[in-house]
Fold this protein.
Amino acid sequence: MVSLSALSFLTQKIVHSKTGHVFLLYCSLQDETTLRMDLTIAGPTRSESLQDFNTQLLGRWWSNAWSEDELTKMLAVETLVANIVKGELHVRGWSESKARRESLELKLVVDPKSEDRASFSLPECSSVEALLQHKILLDGITEKSQAQNCRIFPETALGLREDLAELQAEVSSANRQLKKRDRVIEELKAQIETANEQLKEYVRETAPARPAHPQPKIPPNHSKAAVTKKRRLVQKVEYED
C-alpha cells in the first residue's frame, strides 16, 4: 500500500479544456495523515498572449485538505498519484464569466473520463490566504532544494537532461545519415535498372540474324516421315486357281 507521503511535493499543470487557462496543482502534507491540495491559475489561454492576459486572475488560490481516511474512501492513494502524474485531471466550475466572481469554488476532477472519477472541492482562498500559499510554495521549493545542493533540480537530473540532449542529437544525426543512405540506394537501383534496359536493347540490336531454313521438298515415292527413304510399294499378289 502506497503511503500518503507519495503525494508530497507532487505538482501538475492543468489546461482547462474549454477556456484554455493554465492551472498549477500543488500537493503537500499538513501532517503525516493529512493531504492538502492547492490550485492556482498560472497563465493565459491558448489564444491570449501574456500581454493581453487579465492579470487580476493571477494570485488566486483554491485549497482544501483531507485526512487519509477521507481520501481513501474516494480513491486509493496510488490511483491519485498515477492520475496526477499522467495529467488525468480536470478543473470544473471555471468559465470566463465565473472568473469575475470574488469567491469561486472549483472542483478538481481526477480521471474525468472514468466512471469511477473522484471530485475534490476546492474553495477559493482569501487574499491573505493566497499570499500565504505563495509563501508556502516558495518555502517548499527552497526546503526541497536544500537536499539537492541548493538546486531546484538535482544535479543528476541536470546531467541526465544534458545526456538526453546529446543522445537526441546523435539520433537525429544517425537518422539523417540513414535517409541519405536510403536515397543513395534508391539512386543506385534506378541506375542498375536503366543499365539493364540498355543492355537488353544492345543485345537485341547486335544479335546476328538467324538464316532461314526452307522446308525440304519431298521427292515422289518417298515417305514424309523420312525424306531420304523411298516409300515401299506393296503390290497385290494374285494366285492362279
Observations:
- The mean pLDDT is 79.
